[in-house]
Protein backbone atom coordinates (compact mmCIF):
# COMPACT_ATOMS: atom_id res chain seq x y z
CA UNK A 1 0.00 0.00 0.00
CA UNK A 2 1.34 3.44 -0.94
CA UNK A 3 2.69 5.58 1.88
CA UNK A 4 0.11 8.34 1.39
CA UNK A 5 -2.75 5.86 1.51
CA UNK A 6 -1.32 4.25 4.62
CA UNK A 7 -1.04 7.66 6.28
CA UNK A 8 -4.65 8.43 5.35
CA UNK A 9 -6.12 5.14 6.54
CA UNK A 10 -3.99 4.52 9.64
CA UNK A 11 -5.79 6.95 12.03
CA UNK A 12 -9.14 5.51 10.95
CA UNK A 13 -8.01 1.93 11.50
CA UNK A 14 -7.60 2.50 15.24
CA UNK A 15 -9.68 -0.05 17.12
CA UNK A 16 -12.93 1.31 18.58
CA UNK A 17 -14.09 -1.95 20.19
CA UNK A 18 -14.14 -5.69 19.56
CA UNK A 19 -17.03 -7.72 18.18
CA UNK A 20 -16.98 -11.51 18.52
CA UNK A 21 -13.27 -11.35 19.24
CA UNK A 22 -12.43 -9.30 16.14
CA UNK A 23 -11.41 -5.61 16.31
CA UNK A 24 -13.77 -3.00 14.88
CA UNK A 25 -12.07 0.11 13.51
CA UNK A 26 -13.26 3.70 13.45
CA UNK A 27 -13.50 3.39 9.68
CA UNK A 28 -15.78 0.37 9.87
CA UNK A 29 -17.92 2.19 12.43
CA UNK A 30 -18.27 5.24 10.17
CA UNK A 31 -19.27 2.94 7.32
CA UNK A 32 -21.87 1.36 9.59
CA UNK A 33 -23.49 4.67 10.56
CA UNK A 34 -23.60 6.26 7.10
CA UNK A 35 -24.57 2.99 5.40
CA UNK A 36 -27.51 2.38 7.71
CA UNK A 37 -28.72 5.96 7.28
CA UNK A 38 -28.41 5.72 3.49
CA UNK A 39 -30.52 2.56 3.24
CA UNK A 40 -33.10 3.95 5.68
CA UNK A 41 -33.46 7.08 3.53
CA UNK A 42 -33.77 4.93 0.41
CA UNK A 43 -36.56 2.90 2.00
CA UNK A 44 -38.39 6.20 2.61
CA UNK A 45 -37.73 7.26 -1.01
CA UNK A 46 -35.84 10.33 0.27
CA UNK A 47 -33.45 11.84 -2.28
CA UNK A 48 -30.96 12.60 0.51
CA UNK A 49 -29.96 8.94 0.35
CA UNK A 50 -27.62 9.93 -2.48
CA UNK A 51 -25.35 12.46 -0.68
CA UNK A 52 -25.29 10.25 2.41
CA UNK A 53 -24.49 7.28 0.19
CA UNK A 54 -21.62 9.15 -1.46
CA UNK A 55 -20.11 9.84 1.97
CA UNK A 56 -20.56 6.16 2.81
CA UNK A 57 -18.68 5.08 -0.31
CA UNK A 58 -15.63 7.08 0.72
CA UNK A 59 -15.42 5.24 4.05
CA UNK A 60 -15.93 1.84 2.45
CA UNK A 61 -13.42 2.63 -0.29
CA UNK A 62 -10.75 3.05 2.38
CA UNK A 63 -11.96 0.01 4.33
CA UNK A 64 -12.01 -2.33 1.34
CA UNK A 65 -8.64 -1.09 0.12
CA UNK A 66 -7.10 -1.97 3.47
CA UNK A 67 -8.69 -5.46 3.26
CA UNK A 68 -7.53 -6.08 -0.36
CA UNK A 69 -11.11 -6.39 -1.64
CA UNK A 70 -10.16 -4.65 -4.86
CA UNK A 71 -13.43 -5.07 -6.74
CA UNK A 72 -15.42 -3.73 -3.82
CA UNK A 73 -12.97 -0.84 -3.52
CA UNK A 74 -13.30 -0.03 -7.22
CA UNK A 75 -17.05 -0.34 -6.91
CA UNK A 76 -17.10 2.55 -4.44
CA UNK A 77 -15.55 4.86 -7.06
CA UNK A 78 -18.26 3.86 -9.53
CA UNK A 79 -20.87 4.40 -6.81
CA UNK A 80 -19.79 8.02 -6.43
CA UNK A 81 -20.45 8.65 -10.12
CA UNK A 82 -23.72 6.69 -10.10
CA UNK A 83 -24.75 8.48 -6.90
CA UNK A 84 -24.45 11.86 -8.59
CA UNK A 85 -26.37 10.58 -11.63
CA UNK A 86 -29.09 9.07 -9.43
CA UNK A 87 -29.37 12.25 -7.39
CA UNK A 88 -30.03 14.23 -10.58
CA UNK A 89 -32.48 11.64 -11.98
CA UNK A 90 -34.52 11.42 -8.79
CA UNK A 91 -34.79 15.21 -8.70
CA UNK A 92 -35.57 15.82 -12.37
CA UNK A 93 -37.53 12.65 -13.21
CA UNK A 94 -37.66 10.80 -16.52
CA UNK A 95 -39.05 13.77 -18.44
CA UNK A 96 -36.65 16.25 -16.84
CA UNK A 97 -39.32 18.35 -15.13
CA UNK A 98 -40.98 16.15 -12.48
CA UNK A 99 -39.74 14.03 -9.59
CA UNK A 100 -39.18 10.35 -10.30
CA UNK A 101 -41.84 7.86 -9.13
CA UNK A 102 -41.49 4.16 -8.34
CA UNK A 103 -42.03 1.95 -11.40
CA UNK A 104 -41.41 -1.63 -12.48
CA UNK A 105 -38.50 -2.08 -14.88
CA UNK A 106 -39.46 -3.66 -18.21
CA UNK A 107 -38.38 -7.25 -18.85
CA UNK A 108 -35.77 -6.12 -21.38
CA UNK A 109 -34.01 -3.93 -18.80
CA UNK A 110 -33.93 -6.80 -16.30
CA UNK A 111 -32.51 -9.17 -18.92
CA UNK A 112 -29.73 -6.67 -19.62
CA UNK A 113 -29.01 -6.40 -15.89
CA UNK A 114 -28.83 -10.19 -15.49
CA UNK A 115 -26.59 -10.48 -18.54
CA UNK A 116 -24.34 -7.77 -17.13
CA UNK A 117 -24.04 -9.65 -13.82
CA UNK A 118 -23.13 -12.93 -15.54
CA UNK A 119 -20.63 -11.51 -18.03
CA UNK A 120 -19.27 -8.91 -15.63
CA UNK A 121 -18.64 -11.50 -12.91
CA UNK A 122 -16.56 -13.60 -15.30
CA UNK A 123 -14.50 -10.61 -16.46
CA UNK A 124 -13.93 -9.16 -12.99
CA UNK A 125 -13.11 -12.59 -11.57
CA UNK A 126 -10.28 -13.07 -14.07
CA UNK A 127 -8.95 -9.59 -13.29
CA UNK A 128 -9.05 -10.21 -9.55
CA UNK A 129 -7.24 -13.52 -9.87
CA UNK A 130 -4.34 -11.70 -11.50
CA UNK A 131 -4.50 -8.94 -8.85
CA UNK A 132 -4.28 -11.49 -6.03
CA UNK A 133 -7.55 -10.24 -4.57
CA UNK A 134 -9.20 -11.90 -1.59
CA UNK A 135 -12.26 -14.09 -2.43
CA UNK A 136 -12.18 -13.11 -6.13
CA UNK A 137 -15.30 -15.00 -7.25
CA UNK A 138 -17.59 -13.69 -4.52
CA UNK A 139 -16.01 -10.25 -4.76
CA UNK A 140 -16.67 -10.15 -8.51
CA UNK A 141 -20.23 -11.45 -8.18
CA UNK A 142 -21.27 -8.97 -5.50
CA UNK A 143 -19.62 -6.14 -7.40
CA UNK A 144 -21.67 -6.78 -10.52
CA UNK A 145 -24.86 -7.44 -8.56
CA UNK A 146 -24.43 -4.15 -6.74
CA UNK A 147 -23.80 -2.20 -9.94
CA UNK A 148 -26.96 -3.64 -11.49
CA UNK A 149 -28.88 -2.82 -8.31
CA UNK A 150 -27.57 0.76 -8.32
CA UNK A 151 -28.58 1.17 -11.96
CA UNK A 152 -32.13 0.11 -11.11
CA UNK A 153 -32.13 2.32 -8.00
CA UNK A 154 -31.15 5.35 -10.08
CA UNK A 155 -34.26 4.73 -12.19
CA UNK A 156 -36.37 4.16 -9.05
CA UNK A 157 -37.20 0.65 -10.29
CA UNK A 158 -38.75 -1.61 -7.69
CA UNK A 159 -36.61 -4.59 -8.81
CA UNK A 160 -33.57 -2.84 -7.35
CA UNK A 161 -34.47 -4.44 -4.01
CA UNK A 162 -34.25 -8.00 -5.38
CA UNK A 163 -30.72 -7.33 -6.59
CA UNK A 164 -29.73 -5.72 -3.28
CA UNK A 165 -31.18 -8.65 -1.31
CA UNK A 166 -29.22 -11.13 -3.44
CA UNK A 167 -26.01 -9.13 -2.98
CA UNK A 168 -26.47 -8.86 0.79
CA UNK A 169 -26.94 -12.63 1.10
CA UNK A 170 -23.44 -13.05 -0.37
CA UNK A 171 -21.82 -10.08 1.36
CA UNK A 172 -22.70 -11.28 4.87
CA UNK A 173 -20.64 -14.52 4.88
CA UNK A 174 -17.88 -12.82 2.84
CA UNK A 175 -17.30 -10.19 5.50
CA UNK A 176 -17.48 -12.75 8.31
CA UNK A 177 -14.66 -14.69 6.63
CA UNK A 178 -12.67 -11.44 6.29
CA UNK A 179 -13.15 -10.69 10.04
CA UNK A 180 -15.12 -7.54 9.16
CA UNK A 181 -17.70 -8.51 11.74
CA UNK A 182 -19.37 -5.14 12.20
CA UNK A 183 -19.68 -4.80 8.44
CA UNK A 184 -21.29 -8.25 8.35
CA UNK A 185 -23.76 -7.12 11.02
CA UNK A 186 -24.44 -3.97 8.98
CA UNK A 187 -25.31 -6.10 5.98
CA UNK A 188 -27.67 -8.22 8.07
CA UNK A 189 -29.42 -4.97 8.96
CA UNK A 190 -29.25 -3.91 5.30
CA UNK A 191 -30.94 -7.17 4.35
CA UNK A 192 -33.80 -6.44 6.74
CA UNK A 193 -34.06 -2.87 5.45
CA UNK A 194 -34.09 -4.13 1.85
CA UNK A 195 -37.05 -6.39 2.60
CA UNK A 196 -38.78 -3.44 4.28
CA UNK A 197 -37.90 -1.24 1.30
CA UNK A 198 -39.37 -3.73 -1.15
CA UNK A 199 -42.66 -3.75 0.74
CA UNK A 200 -42.68 0.03 1.11
CA UNK A 201 -41.96 0.65 -2.56
CA UNK A 202 -44.68 -1.81 -3.58
CA UNK A 203 -47.21 0.20 -1.60
CA UNK A 204 -45.86 3.45 -3.02
CA UNK A 205 -46.07 2.13 -6.58
CA UNK A 206 -49.73 1.21 -6.06
CA UNK A 207 -50.51 4.58 -4.46
CA UNK A 208 -48.74 6.54 -7.21
CA UNK A 209 -50.60 4.54 -9.88
CA UNK A 210 -53.92 5.41 -8.25
CA UNK A 211 -53.32 9.16 -8.09
CA UNK A 212 -53.88 9.93 -11.82
CA UNK A 213 -57.08 7.85 -11.76
CA UNK A 214 -58.32 9.67 -8.67
CA UNK A 215 -57.67 13.04 -10.33
CA UNK A 216 -59.62 11.95 -13.42
CA UNK A 217 -62.61 10.68 -11.43
CA UNK A 218 -62.69 13.59 -8.96
UniProtKB/TrEMBL annotation:
<feature type="transmembrane region" description="Helical">
    <location>
        <begin position="73"/>
        <end position="90"/>
    </location>
</feature>
<feature type="transmembrane region" description="Helical">
    <location>
        <begin position="20"/>
        <end position="41"/>
    </location>
</feature>
<feature type="transmembrane region" description="Helical">
    <location>
        <begin position="134"/>
        <end position="153"/>
    </location>
</feature>
<keyword id="KW-0813">Transport</keyword>
<keyword id="KW-0472">Membrane</keyword>
<protein>
    <submittedName>
        <fullName>Membrane protein</fullName>
    </submittedName>
</protein>
<dbReference type="GO" id="GO:0034257">
    <property type="term" value="F:nicotinamide riboside transmembrane transporter activity"/>
</dbReference>
<keyword id="KW-0812">Transmembrane</keyword>
<dbReference type="InterPro" id="IPR006419">
    <property type="entry name" value="NMN_transpt_PnuC"/>
</dbReference>
<keyword id="KW-1133">Transmembrane helix</keyword>
<comment type="similarity">
    <text>Belongs to the nicotinamide ribonucleoside (NR) uptake permease (TC 4.B.1) family.</text>
</comment>
<feature type="transmembrane region" description="Helical">
    <location>
        <begin position="48"/>
        <end position="67"/>
    </location>
</feature>
<feature type="transmembrane region" description="Helical">
    <location>
        <begin position="110"/>
        <end position="128"/>
    </location>
</feature>
<dbReference type="GO" id="GO:0005886">
    <property type="term" value="C:plasma membrane"/>
</dbReference>
<feature type="transmembrane region" description="Helical">
    <location>
        <begin position="160"/>
        <end position="176"/>
    </location>
</feature>
<feature type="transmembrane region" description="Helical">
    <location>
        <begin position="182"/>
        <end position="201"/>
    </location>
</feature>
<dbReference type="Pfam" id="PF04973">
    <property type="entry name" value="NMN_transporter"/>
</dbReference>
<keyword id="KW-1003">Cell membrane</keyword>
